[in-house]
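so my prof wants the structure for this chain in the tokens format not the other one, which i didnt know existed until like an hour ago. anyway here's the sequence
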Amino acid sequence: MNRKIGILRGINVGGKRKILMADLKSLCEELGLKNVTTYIQSGNLIFNSDKPNSELENKLEKAITEKFGFDVPVIVRTEKELESSISKNPFIAKDVDIYQLHLTFLKEKPNEEDIERILTFNYEPDKFKIAEKDIFIFCAGKYHESKLTNNFFEKQLEVGATTRNWKTVMKLSELSKN
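here's what i got, hopefully its the right format
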């Protein structure tokens, strides 16, 4: 079975759309996912499944809506896809603080016209680079103060998105190897 990482958008933020990780884990097990682990309260899953990512995304989204009563976008990556993303981060450097780095996961690859348009935006000193279904972000300050948000990327690229800080990305990679 393939090791997969599920990333949920917008749960347990500001006391809204609350899902206990134990309940999320149980739901995943009910759906037939194996060796399910959760990481922190923001909705990160690691599990085994041979089903295609898009099928898992749809299955999880539907089950969460039915069980908890609200829509939660889900993005799934394989362990290998996550490793590939990590290796492509253009902002990794010796003098960069890990807390300045973030990875926005896209539900699907955006079209070229939308990519060309978004590249005209400049929010220096914050920077971003798009690579397939990933957006690498460097924030000079705090992420919550940046204009490079999920909403910005979703609006400009017309695809679903969710972001994790680099520390979380690296922890998800580590956990997916266990």
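also thought this was worth mentioning. The first helix runs from residue 21 to 30.
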